[in-house]
Amino acid sequence: MNISAAEEESAQEIHIPADIDWEMLDKSKFFFLGAALFSGVSATLYPVVLVKTRQQVAQVQLSGIGTAFSIVKHGGFQGLYRGFGTSLMGTIPARALYMAALEVTKSHVGSTTVKLGFPEPTAAAIANAVAGLTAAMVAQLVWTPIDVVSQRLMVQSSSSQCRYVNGIDAFRKIVNSHGPKGLYRGFGISILTYAPSNAVWWASYSVAQRFVWGGIGCYLKGGGDETIRPDSKTVMAVQGASAAMAGGISALITMPLDTIKTRLQVLDGEQNRLRGPTIGQTVRNLVKEGGWLACYRGLGPRWASMSISATTMITTYEFLKRLSAKNQEGLL
């Protein structure tokens, strides 16, 4: 899908760099560089995710800053990276699955919708939404067990559960206590949380880019007919701004589901330890603890995390695609 083609009527004076589809990528370079780049992104954002998770499972509401200070006070700065090794080892294959499913689906759905007669902006939004939905569902096969283990490690110093030495120890104890299905606790609600969220995010990102580029076109339009070629910094700024807007909206919409998911994956339940709490029990406990607003505990860190990670992720991802393109000259 070529975003520049979608802008021909509304902003012809701006030459937007072509999008890079699956067939244009050097796959080995794409996955190798992707693992390295996204590992760095994960390391940067992990403390915010840990703070958000602690807030969600706490029975009393604390501010994000207060939670962070408490973690550092009791565990030092390394406490902000509790469970990071486990998370990283799972994130690499999960991210690879996500990127492959995203690009393959987007390429095929995009070309199909254009052939069906949809205008290219509409086809791009549909392709992005379907690709985001598909990628999230595929990646959850790996992400859910990693979430369960890493989140247990994140909160163990503040909960009444047994202690875990490391990710392997947590994995073994969860399987011994609950069987393999214990690793997929919250899988259904993870799909309900991340699949629609990804669909909304990728569709919103596609629409936001066109909106922003259209605004820039109107702003820069002068009396002449010359073609304006935005530099790489401008392209990156537009991508980052569009990603931040889409990330903030997704965080707000899916926050209650994320809180319930985290509770299901982390808490064993006091009265029903073998099966764990149900979704209904989890919601009732949350409401009992702090009313319906309890479902939004950790919204600040999650909003910040999703907005920052969306901006970082998309600029890193677009940069990765350009680095991995087979024909660098053809991108200009």
From TrEMBL:
Pfam families in the cross-refs: Mito_carr
Solcar repeats, residue ranges: 26-108, 123-211, 234-323
Localization in the cell: Membrane
Residues annotated as transmembrane: 30-51
Cellular-component GO terms for this entry: membrane
Organism whose genome encodes this protein: Gossypium lobatum
InterPro entries according to UniProt: MCP, MCP_dom_sf, MCP_transmembrane
Taxonomic placement: Eukaryota, Viridiplantae, Streptophyta, Embryophyta, Tracheophyta
Alphabetic keyword roster: Membrane, Repeat, Transmembrane, Transmembrane helix, Transport
Superkingdom of origin: Eukaryota
Membrane topology type: Multi-pass membrane protein
An annotated GO BP: transmembrane transport
Similarity comment: Belongs to the mitochondrial carrier (TC 2.A.29) family.
Name assigned to this protein: Solute carrier family 25 member 44-like
